[in-house]
TrEMBL record, chain A:
Domain of life where this protein originates: Bacteria
UniProt xrefs under Gene3D superfamilies: 2.60.120.1130, 2.60.40.3140, 3.10.620.30
InterPro entries given in the database record: DUF3857
Species assigned in the record: Flagellimonas zhangzhouensis
Protein name per the record: DUF3857 domain-containing protein
Coiled-coil blocks: none
TrEMBL record, chain B:
Record's keyword annotation contains Signal: yes
Name of this chain's protein: Transglutaminase-like superfamily protein
Cleavable signal peptide: 1-18
InterPro entries: DUF3857 (IPR024618), Papain-like_cys_pep_sf (IPR038765), Transglutaminase-like (IPR002931)
Stretches assigned to the Transglutaminase-like domain: 272-376
TM regions (residue ranges): none
């Protein structure tokens, strides 16, 4: 049954393959030269008509080289697409060897007229210590030009076989990737993103690769061909999203094993057990993680002796490392860390700071391990097999009396047990060097609340108002607020605060309530005045002196990937507003009670009159961290309701 | 004796280290400062027309995070510059050294800015993570350059929110070398100076920080600085001589422009055909300008003297791209091929109006555009844009002194000023209020002058960008749906027309039987400049504008206004604001609005008054009326 089903598809592919006739460089197919606009995406400024990449291995000057060949044709649809005429080809180099970019050719096709790139207009630019790039722009670019270019990269770094991006920021009509990989190199491969391959072929070619030094030995090759057609542009300019790399269509390779002709096999990664074994034997990694003696000698002794309680001890150590270091804004995983040097200079990357923390926790006889994670930007690590480049960040995991705490000491205002927002990426791998590594879920703090409790006195004689409010923040909301407050002086904060509120609202006094604030919450106390409230026989007052959302954060009509908030959150606003003497309530806003599907979010708004006051209750509660793209319309509508409730509600007062 | 030497050494080293302790900063230099320039000195020696030695010493105490970028430990250099010394030392708050950077510890990178494909300018810089505040960084740079065309301008104040403890500037030139100098904004500052025919020396101490305020004059208009220029100079292999704008313009013409306008004969024939039968120079210019706009794009490549010399017209013609110099020179060449004279013109292109220094000629400006005199009128062409209409200056080049390069030398001329009433927007619209609290309406918005600048580019934007624009423009309307937009760009009249239809659910609020309607749907101006406690600087409104609005409002069946809004009129030195509402028939209202903001300079005391004016405008634009059900009354 299955076979019967497969056959027609294969046939189709054959037909298709014949349809895509190979063209020489510099020639356009009829389709390409006649192409005008892309109906599937009329917003596109430029489109890849054709793109083909190829990787294979070749012995050059006695060395095995990884060769990349690239050939592309882009249609420039309008002037906004001119940026796509600027081409950058990055290449890597180290002290000993370098990748080489060569055979750059570029032609601009304008209605059959060809303009070639002059080789003297190709520039070579250093980006940083290890990366440079070739750079050029196409000559004679017009609206409607087809830009064709090709180049070759020769690389001595066999692990640089990275795969292929099927999706880019402009649509691709046809994109093809080929690889010819000798059987003695094994690469893990995985397809990311939502899109499917239109061609997925793997065949074996016998005796295709041999070393000149061993002419009698040869290996066969795996010949791969992958094609996607009509790949939509990838847009990632939306609020609240997880790393774009999770959703952009890409084929990923990672070198897993090399079987040498000399009979020596090198495994790069295969199973987590291999990784664990390798790390255990790795002097550098093990050495960095087992420096507890060094730190014992160099830190205040009372850090260990202050308290007998394990949790208190852990918290003291965490706070010490947090305040001791200034983070240099760089990440880092297990390798290339210089913990001692970082400690001496009081600055280091994420890994160095957190390895210090792990060492100190272990020195205090607590059970701490390094946990590898990937930041939200970097994407979710693959669970199927170890891909070390999936990880870009290292945190500490400590177990105390049966509870696990995940720690990152890089951020000054972070509470014990909380991770920075960038780390809220669902799971990571704990590198327990003794008992073996394991996956561990990142569970963000559950109580993240911003709550405003406000009392307001209105005076319609003078058309003014005044009052007080407390703002209580917990969890990540408190953390973000502390960070925000730390970046500016009180005066700047108040100026910004006044600007962010409705007109004629002025904060007269502001204090962080130190007594009520603690590790778990931040309490701010404000006194305010309100001008130009209005007077006359009818006065309209919006009961929201403080508003959480001025605009709906979700403006796009559609969304092609999930909405990800990182942590669950709640916003509350409770107000009590007096009814001025000589006035009565004429109208109050209608109540609102809206939910998200599966009870994953609740929005409530209610006003009522009670004992000479208007009581306002508003709360917005998001119970999931992630909402699928199918549920986007609901989320958008939900926020629309929240914004409407805050901006369009009026209490109408009337003179008696 | 030995004992004595030892104590002296200890004393001296302590003294030395403590010199950058934060405690020793005078109290008045800390107020309003993110950073303090502890010591800022430069020693310039001009040895020859093509050899200048510079010793630069900058010690900055950074008081908080905002001050981090005032460290400014950047060494920009060109290919022929030689940096002999580059080092930095970091001190903690007590003035003790905590880290030292040698030349090799600096990162070396290409100094590429936006829009540049490639540049051979480079920069060496420090990558230091501060570990505590305050901290101090001492930066020392010594280098030699052949490019004496750029003699330094010395600022005694660095920037807003930075104070200066000590600033010294020394300039010496070989006896054979003549130079000019000019002191600016020295009033109110104690700057001591001495000079001889070949030496200058300036010294200033304890200058307090200036706070940045909205709508203030530009920093360089009040900050004290001294400028120096050589009468004979050198630039990337080319010698030059100039002591006034005329001579400088002559040099630019003779060395950088002349002969760069040769064109391929085919191209000449092509453009001559393009204007065949056209006699009028204005019309010819329009055709050529449109040809350039349609066929070229902006790409900057900067190599050596190419940073100042335009790419040849022939080359631009071949690759169809260039930077401002290349494209301007190319347009000039094409115009000359059809018999129209034009002039390459140097300008400071900036939203903030900035003139070339009237009375101090030196290499200035950051942009080049084209001047075409036709029948005694100056026509201006912005050759880097594919969309700007002919002779439209916009906010980038309006109302400032620019240098016209003619074969007879340079000429400083002033570009046109845009008049307040000329920056005009007229919105005519109507909308229907539905009883389900939604509205639906359309408007025609016609913009000219600087208001044209703010919008004309919309036409070529993708749909998504256009939607985003209106979601911002009508940002006060929640749940906005953009129904239809179309545009008309009347380039000849420099007039941009938008046809916009919108709808919005839940636009009105309800309170039981009443509906609350904010009248101004299409043009609410809700910007009030931020509050400034204790304003220091004058208030500048560099460009004014005029908005006029007129909307018909169709009320839902069965509703009528409780009362009509009373007309409002505010008239003061900043401008005029008027709103009025009138009844057209039982179901229709007419809303009229006018806002004129006048350009001008006002004393600092007026800032609050101006804010009050803008607050009143906000209040007026937010005016609500109540709609009652008719049967109720």
């Amino acid at each position: 049954m299955l076979k019967k089903f497969l056959l027609p598809i294969l046939l189709l592919h054959c037909v298709f393959t014949f349809g895509q006739i190979e063209f020489e460089f510099g020639e356009l197919s009829i389709f390409e030269s006649d192409f005008k606009t892309y109906e599937k995406d009329t917003t596109a400024n430029a489109v890849f008509l054709y793109e083909k990449g190829e990787n294979y291995f070749e012995v050059r000057n006695g060395y095995i080289m990884l060769i990349t060949k690239y050939h592309a044709k882009k249609k420039i649809i309008n002037k906004n697409g001119f940026d796509h005429a600027d081409i950058e080809i990055p290449y890597y180099h180290s002290d000993r060897s370098t990748e080489e970019v060569s055979k750059i050719r570029a032609i601009t096709h304008n209605n059959g007229v060809k303009s070639s790139l002059d080789q003297s207009n190709i520039f070579d630019e250093d980006i940083n210590e290890h990366w440079s790039q070739k750079k050029f722009t196409f000559p004679n670019v017009q609206e409607g030009s087809v830009l064709e270019y090709s180049y070759e990269i020769q690389s001595p770094y066999l692990y640089n076989l990275k795969g292929w991006y099927f999706q880019d920021d402009i649509p691709k009509i046809y994109t093809e990737y080929n690889a010819k990989i000798p059987a003695n190199y094994r690469y893990n491969r995985s397809l990311k993103g939502e899109l499917n391959l239109d061609v997925n072929e793997a065949t074996v070619r016998e005796r295709c690769f041999r070393l000149p030094s061993r002419p009698n030995q040869s290996s066969h090759c795996e010949v791969l061909k992958y094609v996607m057609e009509h790949v939509p542009a990838f847009k990632d300019d939306e609020e609240y999203m997880l790393g774009a790399t999770n959703y952009r269509s890409k084929l990923e390779f990672e070198l897993s094993e090399k079987l040498g002709f000399d009979g020596i096999n090198t495994k790069y990664t295969k199973t987590w057990r291999d990784v664990d074994r390798q790390l255990r034997g790795d002097k550098d990694v093990g050495g960095q993680l087992r420096k507890k003696n060094y730190f014992e000698r160099n830190i205040p002794l009372d850090l260990f002796t202050q308290s007998e309680d394990k949790l208190t001890k852990a918290k003291n150590i965490y706070r010490f490392v947090q305040s001791y270091y200034t983070w240099n804004e760089k990440f880092g995983v297990l390798w290339e860390n210089r913990v001692k040097q970082a400690f001496d200079e009081r600055t280091g990357n994420v890994a160095e700071i957190n390895i210090t923390l792990i060492n100190l926790l272990n020195a205090a006889d607590l059970d701490a391990d390094a946990m590898l994670v990937s930041t939200r930007e970097h994407g979710l690590p693959k669970k199927s097999h170890p891909v070390m480049t999936d990880f870009n960040y290292l945190i500490a995991k400590v177990d105390i009396d049966g509870t696990s705490y995940l720690l990152d000491a890089t951020e000054k205002n972070l509470n014990f047990g909380m991770l920075p927002y960038r780390c809220l990426n669902y799971y990571g791998r704990v590198m327990d060097l003794d008992d073996g590594s394991y996956w561990f879920d990142i569970e963000p703090e559950k109580s993240n609340v911003r709550s405003v409790r406000l009392q307001m006195e209105l005076d319609f004689e003078s058309g003014s108002g005044s009052g007080v409010f407390d703002e209580i923040s917990t969890g990540y909301e408190a953390y973000f607020k502390r960070n925000y407050l730390a970046t500016m002086t009180e005066e700047e904060y108040l100026d910004k605060f006044d600007e962010s509120t409705i007109n004629d609202f002025y904060v007269e006094d502001f204090q962080v309530d130190e007594e009520k604030s603690n590790e778990n919450q931040l309490v701010e106390h404000y006194e305010f005045t309100l001008e130009n409230v209005g007077n006359g026989s009818t006065v309209l007052v919006n009961p929201f002196a403080i508003r959480y959302f001025k605009k709906n954060p979700f403006q796009s009509e559609n969304r092609y990937y999930p909405v990800d908030f990182g942590y669950v959150r709640t916003f509350q606003y409770y107000a009590s507003i007096n009814i001025p003497e000589g006035y009565k309530i004429k109208e109050i806003p209608n109540p609102m009670n809206v939910g998200l599907p599966d009870n994953s979010g609740v929005l409530r708004f209610n006003c009522n009159e009670s004992q000479g006051k208007v009581m306002v209750q508003f709360s917005l509660h998001l119970k999931y961290t992630q909402y699928t793209s199918e549920g986007y319309a609901y989320v958008k509508k939900f926020f629309e309701n929240a914004v409407t409730a805050q901006n369009n509600s009026y209490v109408v007062f009337e003179k008696i | 004796m030995r004992f004595f030497a030892l104590t002296f050494f200890i004393f001296f080293s302590n003294f030395f280290h403590a010199q950058y302790s934060v405690k020793s900063i005078p109290e008045n230099l800390l107020t309003g400062a993110d950073a303090v320039l502890r010591k800022h000195t430069m020693d310039v020696v001009v040895l020859a027309q093509d050899k200048m030695e510079i010793r630069y010493h900058r010690v900055v105490t950074v008081l908080n995070e905002d001050g981090d970028d005032k460290v400014d430990a950047y060494a920009y250099y060109e290919k022929n510059d030689k940096i002999s010394t580059l080092e930095a030392i970091v001190y903690n708050a007590n003035g003790n050294e905590i880290k030292k950077f040698k030349k090799k510890d600096f990162l070396d990178q290409s100094a590429i800015s936006g829009g540049t494909l490639y540049s051979d300018s480079r920069v060496m810089f420090l990558n230091y993570t501060p570990i505590q505040y305050p901290y101090t960084i001492e930066f020392i740079q010594e280098y030699t350059t052949p490019n004496t065309a750029f003699t330094p301008t010395w600022p005694f104040l660095d920037d807003y929110n930075v104070s200066t403890e000590l600033s010294e500037f020394d300039f010496r030139a070989d006896e054979r070398i003549q130079f000019r100098y000019q002191e600016q904004n020295f009033d109110g500052y104690q700057i001591s100076s001495s000079s001889t025919s070949n030496e200058l020396h300036y010294k200033a101490k304890n200058i307090e920080a200036i706070k940045s305020e909205p709508m203030s004059p530009s920093f360089r208009d009040f900050a004290p600085h001294v400028k120096v220029g050589l009468n004979k100079f050198h630039l990337e292999g080319v010698d030059g001589a100039a002591s006034n704008w005329n001579e400088l313009g002559q040099w630019i013409y003779d060395q950088l422009i002349i002969g760069r306008d040769k064109l391929d004969p085919n191209t000449i024939i092509k453009v001559q055909n393009l204007v065949k039968g056209v006699e009028d120079d204005y019309e010819k210019t329009r055709l050529i300008y449109e040809y350039v706009q349609a066929n070229t794009r902006y790409i900057n490549v900067k190599l050596g003297i190419g940073g100042w010399m335009p790419m040849s017209a022939e080359e631009v013609d071949r690759v169809k791209y260039g930077d401002c110099k290349g494209l301007t020179n190319y347009t000039k060449a094409l115009l000359s091929a059809v018999g129209v004279n034009s002039y390459y013109t140097v300008v400071y292109g900036d939203e903030q109006i900035r003139s070339l220094d009237n009375d101090f000629a030196s290499m200035q400006g950051n942009h080049v555009f084209l001047n075409v005199p036709i029948n005694g009128e100056d026509i201006w062409l912005e050759c880097t844009s594919q969309t700007v209409p002919m002779n439209h200056l916009g906010t980038f080049t309006d109302n400032r002194y620019v240098l016209k390069i003619t074969p007879e030398g340079g000429q400083l001329v002033k570009t046109r000023e845009s008049l307040d009433e000329g920056n005009y927007q007229k919105t005519t619209g109507e909308y229907t209020v539905n009883s389900d609290q939604s509205i639906k309406g359309k408007a025609v918005i016609v913009s000219s002058g600087t208001q044209y600048d703010q919008k004309y580019w919309l036409k070529d934007q993708p749909k998504k960008e256009q939607e985003d624009f209106y979601k911002r423009y009508f940002g006060y309307i929640n749940n906005l749906t953009l129904e239809e937009v179309s545009f008309q760009n009347n380039k000849n009249e420099v007039e941009f027309v938008e046809n916009v239809s919108i709808k919005a659910g839940n636009y009105l609020s309800s309170a039981n039987d009443q509906l609350i309607l904010i009248l101004n749907v299409f043009n609410r101006n809700l910007r009030v400049p931020s509050k400034v406690r204790n304003r220091q600087k004058d208030v500048v409104i560099s460009r004014g504008y005029l908005d006029e609005d007129e909307y018909l409002i169709h009320l839902p069946e069965g509703f009528e206004p409780e009362e009509l809004m009373k007309p409002k009129r505010i008239d003061n030195k900043f401008g005029t604001y008027e709103v009025a509402l009138e009844k057209v028939d039982s179901n229709t209202l007419r809303y009229k609005r006018k806002l004129l903001v006048k350009s001008g300079n006002y004393p600092k005391e007026d800032y609050e008054k101006y804010r009050d004016f803008r607050k009143k405008v906000v209040r007026g634009d937010n005016t609500k009326i109540l709609l009652n059900k008719k049967n109720k009354t």
